[in-house]
Amino acid sequence: xxxxxxxxxxxxxxxxxxxxxxxxxxxxxxxxxxxxxxxxxxxxxxxxxxxxxxxxxxxxxxxxxxxxxxxxxxxxxxxxxxxxxxxxxxxxxxxxxxxxxxxxxxxxxxxxxxxxxxxxxxxxxxxxxxxxxxxxxxxxxxxxxxxxxxxxxxxxxxxxxxxxxxxxxxxxxxxxxxxxxxxxxxxxxxxxxxxxxxxxxxxxxxxxxxxxxxxxxxxxxxxxxxxxxxxxxxx
Length: 235
Prior knowledge:
It contains eleven helices and eight strands. The protein is of the alpha/beta class. The chain has one domain: Vaccinia Virus protein VP39 (Rossmann fold). Strands 1, 2, 3, 4, 5, 6, 7 and 8 form an eight-stranded mixed β-sheet that branches. Helix 4 links the parallel strand 1 and strand 2. It is globular.
């Protein structure tokens, strides 16, 4: 998996959210959380597994809304940050953090209502095997996001030291078919790449976001979208 060693560095957990979600990145954080909530719907009493949970952005949010959540990640320091968040939010009883490999999930078949992964598939070197494992342990829903090929993300990718795996809609469709999943709905967003938002102040980012939304709503919106959210069902 791309960046595996980087994500396991001791200082990454402390720097991760400051790097990713400061300044205009806060807009990204809000949009991603809304995408998760829109896809899962009412979360009360649902069993949810998050793959690559990092410092617990989504796991804590879902636990606060009444879900029973397991967060799995390869980074011990990030998991520790997540545990601290859960304690501070008062949801530690509804949230378990585990260190593990997304390619070999340590759970029986059909263990969770929903299995999700955010900011993961762009790092995946074997996306088909990861998606197959997610489907295996889910009894109802699999949700994930991708960065898209032939968009502004392709240009931004050149500036990244690790790069990202980019996906076409055809490739995602093929991955879903091979995993035995059916697409329920998809949402597409962000004509401007994430990196732009993280480099500018939040107030200026809001202006760019207004332009971004207008572009996405245009007839070419789906083709311009650099990010897609895929909500799939287990037949």
